[in-house]
Amino acid sequence: MHKVQSYTKSLIFSGFFALNIGFITSVSTAWADNHTPLEIVATFSVPADLVERVAGEHGNVTSLTPRGAEAHDWELTPSNFMALEDADIVFYNGFNLEQWMSQVRATLSEDVPLVELAAQADYPTLPIITGDYEGETDPHMWMDPRAAVAYVNVIAESLAEKQPAHADAFHQRAEDTVNALYALHQELTELLGTIPDNQRLLITSEAAFSYFADAYGFTHNGIWGTNSETEGTPSQVMRVIDLVNTRQPKALFWESTISDRHVTAIARDTQVEIAGPLYVDSLSSDEGPAADYFALMRHNARLLRDTLGGIQE
Ligand SMILES: [Zn+2]
After folding, report:
1. What pLDDT is recorded for position 32?
2. One MF term from GO for this chain (predicted)?
3. pTM score, two decimals?
4. Ligand 1 midpoint to CA 279 (Å)
5. Where does the chain have alpha helices with state H?
6. Is residue 293 part of a domain?
7. 202 and 178 fall within a common domain
């Protein structure tokens, strides 16, 4: 009897102790999950813009790569390290776009969620069409607004999981953004639809427009496959000179984050005009033509329409 009593006592005691610990843990978790704004890090300006739209006033978003810089090759700066140390959650594009993710992983503490947007997005992937990485998954999915929708859905889910108290706000802002992205897709379809069929050839430095070309009915090629590889080798240049001579496109296009010297050399050699810049791997400055995702997509579409013989409004 005595034994039973003391056993019961110890059960009650340990139960009380466990309850106490549970209470303390849930209070500290609740504090961590509700503090506003969340410190959010994105690897470059394009995903940072999409994350900002969903986070609203509940997030403070920092882009590791500054606008105008190349997102494929980047080296973390002292301020990047500080941002990663403070981060509650980190978003990156993935599919090997950011060649420097091992540095990010090494810096982050293990409990900080690291969200790979393109890999988690529910959207069909396309392969890289040329170069050293030909056949691997092309990371530039956001160039189709419907894929950007899939990014936004992943962002909303991830933020809601991180901070359940504001889940409704994240989902509401995501829904507004998704509606705007579908409207953008419709607008671009009409705008680009005026380009004659025989002019729908989009040749750039980096072959980063496969998703865009697939969405809007272009044939696409680039001097190299992605900016992660050597740019402008003689064989890459010769291949595109052959292509230009065969297909006779109206223009070649250059992009904002890389030198236009290879495109310029090919254009000179083949007597085709050049146009640009197109924006892909970075937004422009606030004063530039691609200050946010929507402006980037509209700027590219108008430049293509105006250069390739589409009908201007
Ligand atoms: Zn790229």
Report:
1. 53
2. metal ion binding
3. 0.89
4. 10
5. 2-34, 45-55, 78-86, 101-107, 117-120, 145-162, 167-192, 210-216, 234-247, 261-270, 293-307
6. yes
7. no
